[in-house]
Amino acid sequence: DSRIIDVETAFLFGDLDEEVYMTCKEVHEEDEALLLLHAIYGLVQASRQFWIKYVKILKKIGFEGGYPDPCLYSRRDENGVVFLAVWVDDSLLVGDNKAIDKAIQDLKDEGFVLKEDGSLDDYLSCEITMNEEKTIGWIHQPHLLTKMEKRFANLIKGLQVYKTPSAPGGTVIQNHGGPVVDEERHKIYRSGVGMLLYLVKHSRPDIANGVRELSKALVGPSEAAYKDMLRMIKFVLETKDLAVKLMPVVEDLDELIWNVVAYSDSDYAGDKESRLSVAGFVLYLMGVPISWRSKGMKVVAQSSTEAEYIALSETAKEVKFVYQVLASLGIKVKLPIIVRVDNLGAIFMSENISVSQRTTHVGVRYRFVPQFTT
Question: What is the pTM of this model?
Answer without folding.
Answer: 0.87
